[in-house]
Amino acid sequence: MRFAVYSPLVLSLLLSAVGPVIARRVAPALAVRVLTSAAVLTAAATTWSLVLLAAALLTDAPPVVREAREDGRTVTDPVPEAIGLAACLALLVIALRLYRAVRAERCTRRALRRLCAGHRCGSPTPTSRLPRP
């Protein structure tokens, strides 16, 4: 649990330290691919760690802890409640930002479709009426 929760944080710090170095020393096309892939991987790992923290808060303990408790051993909770609440809040913020981004994308596409539908194919545009030099 500790590895799954804290390694994405270390990965984020590593990416922020190594990113500028890669951007300066590698060809732009390759740097974009590498940094984008690393950012997507880091975001997925961070989201997974937040899900684990939120699940631990909701008493859905990881299988190892659950098995230890079934055997009669006392195991401390791997995640304090404050960290679990912070993880739930972070997941809520992520979900809200994702919803807003998808909504803005859909509204933009809808507006562009309406704009294109109102413009006849082959009709003169304002720039086509300007005199040519």
Any key phrases for this structure?
4 helices, mainly alpha, 133 residues, single chain
Overview in brief:
This protein has 4 helices and no strands. It is mostly helical.
Structure description:
There is one protein chain. The protein is mainly α and 133 residues long. The protein contains four helices and no strands. The protein has helices at residues 2-25, 28-57, 63-70, 81-117. The radius of gyration is 25 Å and the shape is flat. It starts with a helix and ends in a 16-residue tail after the last helix. The mean pLDDT is 79.
Topology, pairings included?
Blueprint: H1 2-25, H2 28-57, H3 63-70, H4 81-117
Low-confidence stretches: none
Q: How do the helices and strands follow one another from N- to C-terminus?
A: HHHH
Number of strands: 0
- The share of residues in helices is over 70%
Taking all Cα atoms into account, the compactness measure Rg is 25 Å
General form = flat
Class based on secondary structure composition and strand pairing: mainly alpha
Q: Which whole number gives the mean pLDDT? A: 79
How many H/I helices? Answer: 4
In percent, how much strand structure appears in the residues? under 5%
Termini separation: 70 Å
Biggest beta sheet summary? none
